[in-house]
What we know:
It is a single chain. The chain is α+β, with helices and mostly antiparallel strands. Helices cover 30% and strands 29% of the residues. It has helices at 33-45, 51-54, 67-80, 103-114, 132-135; strands at 2-7, 11-14, 17-20, 24-25, 83-93, 121-126, 139-150. The strands form two sheets. It has a five-stranded mixed beta sheet. A two-stranded antiparallel ribbon has the order 2-3. It is globular.
Amino acid sequence: xxxxxxxxxxxxxxxxxxxxxxxxxxxxxxxxxxxxxxxxxxxxxxxxxxxxxxxxxxxxxxxxxxxxxxxxxxxxxxxxxxxxxxxxxxxxxxxxxxxxxxxxxxxxxxxxxxxxxxxxxxxxxxxxxxxxxxxxxxxxxxxxxxxxxxxxxxxxx
Length: 157
């Protein structure tokens, strides 16, 4: 899962898609909560730690980074260990912005990043019914669950 607070801006990146909004997010990279949650789920399923271990916010290399590139890097790590993605399920938790108009583009973008068909990716959204920081409109969050398949032995080295 991943969480980001809203800050200055006029859009937020969600699942690799810019979504117009009255605010942006405060983050070291592009602040894509969905792709960050996805990277964490991928790394965790493969026993490879978490996104902070691979892309620390103390490293200037990742300042303003495109989260699609982070996801590609994670997928390269998984491929080197013989893994492929069977499916991915992402949940966006936000009162706003609404994602319904962007859901198909998000699904397609994530599917391409994971080298799977669109039907192997699910994107859904929910609110917190006005509760907590999300309900107060202070930020947004995402959760991801993935199923990995071991399709080949890990590469040597």
